[in-house]
User: What shape does this take?
Amino acid sequence: MLETLGYFFVVVPAALFLYALVVYPAILWLCSRFAPAPKVWADPSIWPSVTILVPAYNEEESIAGTLASLLALDYPADRREIVVMSDASTDRTDDIVRGFAARGVRLVRMPVRKGKTAAENHALQLVTSEIVVNTDATIRIPRASLRSLVRVFQDPTIGAASGRDVSVGDLAAEGNGGEGGYVGYEMSIRALETRLGGIIGASGCLYAIRRRLVDTAFPEALSRDFASPLRARLLGTRTVSVDDALCMVPRTRSLQAEYRRKIRTMLRGLNTLWHMRALTNPFTYGRFAWMLVSHKLVRWLGFLMLPLAPLGMLLLAMTKPWAAALVVLGATGLAAGLVALRGREDRKVPKPLATAGFAVASAVAGFIAWQQFFRRTSAATWEPTRRPA
Assistant: This one.
């Protein structure tokens, strides 16, 4: 009985991750072989008006460079505005932004810090452009990316479009080398989903949505970048990933920062999925529901069930020598990951330790996010991820 229970404990989380990370992408790849190639759009005769929203909280070190890069984007200046949403910053962020006022940058300051979503809700009530573009205060967007992102809106069936994140940084000075590989993997899945009709989650670093689809009373504890494609689907449109709309995302310098970010991101994602759970009904939303459950829910359930795996291996190790060997190997990997995770944030971690640390950070963060979700913990107050310039 213990042996059977041990196999069950090991198989359940393994099957969830195997399906979400291997089987689901394989099905997407196979189906995409028979899907038509995405249409290549020429430039429109008149570019739609866009508003670029930049949330900021105490970003005095990076906001000037960010605004300079946004002003340098290849897009008609008379069809573009930039709005910085300051979440009651207490450093020089607001003063720096005001220095760009003559170049068409507007500051919208929250009198009291209430979080990113609350600042977005407030700022969006002032936006009248056709397209709203969302980015981040520590992100760099290549000059041609905005045109690529907006160009696809000539298709009336597209309600939102997401850029393609590119993880960048100085590997010689980082302790979080595993982030880059994961970002590339996630972007490849979005490209496959786009071939089959649309994605189920946008990049918070760069995505655009039609202004008429935006909810200005969006719940503050939820994730707007995840919810935007869901809302677009509810309103009869779809969301695509645009490979040419590149977004350079500096890697977090430490595993600790990545660990905190993963807890916050997954908790907001779980709350968002619960809030919009009607979209998981396959009888109403068909393929979209299958993609949503496969890409998000099944993967997240793997983190919830993950603690069963070591318990199952311990039960099997009582009678199976191979299980005992795997327990030792797993314990070694866990120890290596914990060493990397508990190291100094400003110290470079060797690649094997960084890989183990990224895996441990992801696993622990995922389980903690579930605990906070069951306790109905809110993550409304925003603590932005500090990324290097």
Summary: The CA atoms of residues 20 and 299 lie 5 Å apart. The longest strand covers residues 238-250. The chain has a mean pLDDT of 87.
